[in-house]
Amino acid sequence: MTTKGLKKELHYAIDSIDDSLFLEAIYTLVQDKSKENAFELSDKQKAELDKRVKRHKEGKSKSYSIAEVKKYAVSRGKK
Question: Rounded CA gap, 49 and 53, in Å?
């Protein structure tokens, strides 16, 4: 089953459950899993990204295609 399909089935199943203890347990699992993928940038990191985006939009920084990045990564991995 696809991720989209699983999510749909979970939504349906959760909507039909009235057991609050079970739902709280599921909620805890979901919250813990979502925190694994969550991160926050510091103000310094955000400022650096804003600076880089501005330079890119002004044409002051070089851009690379995904093919160029992959080629570079592969060549660096061989050393």
Answer: 6
